[in-house]
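Annual report, structural modelling task.

Input specification for the nicotinamide-adenine-dinucleotide complex:
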Amino acid sequence: MERGRILLITGACGLIGSEVTRAFARLGFSVTGIDSNHRAIFFGPDGDTSWVLGQLRSEIPSYRHLDTDIRDRDAVLGLVEKLKPDLIVHTAAQPSHDLAATIPFLDFEVNALGTLHLLEAARRFCPESPFIHMSTNKVYGDGPNTIPLVELETRWDYADPAFEHGIAECFSIDQSKHSIFGVSKLAGDVMVQEYGRYFGMPTCCLRGGCLTATFMYELWKSPRIAEVYNLGGGKSNSCSIVEAFRMAENITGKKMNRRYVDENRIGDHICYYSDLRKMQAHYPDWRITKTLPMIFEEIAVGWRRRLRRLAAIIA
Ligand SMILES: NC(=O)c1ccc[n+]([C@@H]2O[C@H](COP(=O)([O-])OP(=O)(O)OC[C@H]3O[C@@H](n4cnc5c(N)ncnc54)[C@H](O)[C@@H]3O)[C@@H](O)[C@H]2O)c1
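The model returned the following structure:
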């Protein structure tokens, strides 16, 4: 039987959420997005995503938006009861490492409690619908930094051959420093797994590194119970920050204003790339379709276009 195609996406105006909205609308889904524009609360006026909402509305005439706050339990339960989505993609989050330590209650309420609201709403009103949760590789804390590293000319790499393909999903999430953000995300991640295992729901945590695309449609086609995948480009599509600056310089022809500090952010990884083998074994049709140079080119083209538009408005 053909499944329905109603998508509920949280954080619809965010970086990941807006792209997921566009991608699934193109695939014929009827998309309802919720976003309370908390980015503007977290990051001030520069974080305001109203302009993204404007774009989504003009690009996708059928797009339906609600400014629901995922911390509002009754609103979330009421919405899911009414909509009965066939797919839930949860990307709403407080996404900043450094900010979390200054707003621990708000960070935890959004990342952990908000996730529980959505899970419970799904369990009550659409338990068969896949629930895809955007988690993060920060759930591994700084554990990956305990792996012996080798310093190459422009990057660190794992010296231990056991990690030649990167970090796999079985890597410990325990007894390491995560940052306050890492812990609130981990709480949400484990709860998503638990709703899968305990209630037999098709939940999945995607632990992203640096993301520019998503394999969520493959998951939608063949959902599994309580899965976890590390997401990203894998070793073959990885770069260090120094290498990223060089690629940006090559594309823009402009020297980047940068300074190398021999210290990682608290709780962050010195070297990290995802071992994609589990995901590839479960979803053999999924392929990386964009190489790093293609991604950098797209970012540069997009920003040139945006800056031209801004210049025209100012003029
Ligand atoms: N962008 C990446 O490359 C990447 C990589 C790894 C993991 N992730 C994870 O994916 C998730 C989304 O990341 P992003 O980069 O799209 O973040 P983002 O900040 O761009 O988007 C999150 C959106 O959620 C909304 N939001 C926040 N609190 C809300 C609330 N209480 N109710 C409703 N909406 C709310 C914000 O307004 C924002 O538009 C995060 O959990 C992040 O850790 C992202």
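The pocket of nicotinamide-adenine-dinucleotide is lined by residues 10-11, 13-17, 34-39, 49, 69-71, 91-93, 95, 110, 114, 134, 136, 185, 208, 210-211 (CB under 6 Å).
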